[in-house]
Write a structure and sequence with these properties.
The chain has a single domain, classed as Spore Coat Polysaccharide Biosynthesis Protein SpsA, Chain A (Alpha-Beta Complex), CATH 3.90.550.10. Helices cover 40% and strands 16% of the residues. The protein contains ten helices and nine strands. The strands form two sheets. Strands 5-4-1-6-8-7-9 form a seven-stranded mixed sheet, sandwiched between helices. It has a two-stranded antiparallel sheet with strand order 2-3. α3 (76-87) crosses α5 and α8 runs antiparallel to α10. InterPro entries: Cytidylyl_trans (IPR003329), Nucleotide-diphossugar_trans (IPR029044).
Length: 243
C-alpha cells in the first residue's frame, strides 16, 4: 500500500499573511514543517494553489526536493484529489503546513493503525476527540475514498475542508478511529501558526528552547514548566468549520 503525506499550503492566509514563509531559527516555518514530516520516511507532497502568490511556496519546496501539486485555491478537496491521482496513492495522510512542530512519531502511529486494517472505509485521526496540542493534527484515509468524495461532494464546506465528506459519514458506511494521546488531554496547548501571537510562541520555542529537535512530549513539558509561554496564545480561538 502506497501511503503519502499531503500538506496544504498557501500564502494568502488571512489572520497572518504568508505565515508559512515567515522564519524562525534561520528557517521558514514551512521548512521546519517539511523537515519534521520527512522523518516519517513517507513521501511528502505540498498541495498549493495556482495563485501566483504561491510561487514562493513552489520554489521553496523545489529547493527542498519536495514535489508540489497545484490546484484550486477554494476547492481544496479537488486539490487533494489531484495530488492523490498524480502520485497514485492508495492512502493519504492530510496535514496542514501551519504545524511547524508536528511530531513525525505521532503521525507514524496513526499510519501504523491505518495499515493494520487497510480498510477502504477507515478514517483515522488524532483529533476526532482532541487530546494532542493543536499543531499535531493528522487525518488518514483511503485514496479511492477521497477521489469518490471529490466526485460526489456538493456542499461548499466539503469542497473547502477536504475530509468532512468522510468524517461526517455522508456515505453512511465510514468507520472513524480516534487516536488519543496516552498522556491524557493536553489539547489546551497551541503549537500551530495562525496568528501573530502563535508566531511569538513558536519563535520562542524554536529559538530559545531548540524545539525543532524536540518531540511532542518534550514540547508539552516545556509549556508546563513555563506557563508564560502558554499565556502568549492561550486566548486564541480556533476558526470553526465554515469560517
Amino acid at each position: 500500500m502506497k501511503i503519502g503525506i499531503i500538506t496544504q499550503a498557501r500564502a494568502t492566509s488571512t489572520r497572518l499573511p504568508a505565515k508559512v514563509l515567515l522564519t524562525a531559527g534561520g528557517k521558514t516555518y514551512l521548512q521546519h514543517h517539511l523537515d519534521r514530516l520527512a522523518e516519517t520516511g513517507l513521501p511528502v507532497i505540498v498541495a498549493t494553489t495556482t495563485n501566483p502568490d504561491d510561487e514562493p511556496i513552489v520554489e521553496l519546496a523545489g529547493e527542498l526536493g519536495v514535489p508540489v501539486f497545484r490546484g484550486s485555491e477554494l476547492d481544496v478537496l479537488s486539490r487533494f484529489a489531484g495530488a492523490i491521482r498524480e502520485h497514485e496513492l492508495d492512502g493519504a495522510v492530510r496535514v496542514t503546513s501551519d504545524c511547524p512542530l508536528i511530531d513525525a512519531a505521532v503521525v507514524a502511529e496513526g499510519v501504523e493503525a491505518f495499515r493494520a486494517e487497510a480498510a477502504d472505509n477507515l478514517y483515522v485521526s488524532n483529533c476526532i476527540q482532541r487530546t494532542y496540542p493543536r499543531g499535531m493534527d493528522y487525518e488518514i484515509f483511503s485514496g479511492p475514498r477521497l477521489l469518490q468524495a471529490d466526485a460526489d461532494a456538493t456542499l461548499p464546506a466539503d469542497r473547502e475542508h477536504v475530509t468532512s465528506y468522510l468524517h461526517q459519514n455522508r456515505t453512511g458506511d465510514m468507520r472513524l478511529l480516534n487516536m488519543p494521546w496516552d498522556r491524557g488531554d493536553l489539547s489546551k496547548y497551541r503549537l500551530t501558526l495562525d496568528t501573530p501571537d502563535d508566531r511569538q510562541l513558536l519563535t520562542a520555542l524554536i529559538e530559545d528552547f531548540g524545539a525543532a529537535e524536540l518531540n511532542c512530549a518534550d514540547l508539552v513539558a516545556i509549556m508546563e514548566k513555563h506557563p508564560e509561554l502558554h499565556a502568549l496564545n492561550e486566548h486564541i480561538e480556533q476558526k470553526k468549520l465554515g469560517e
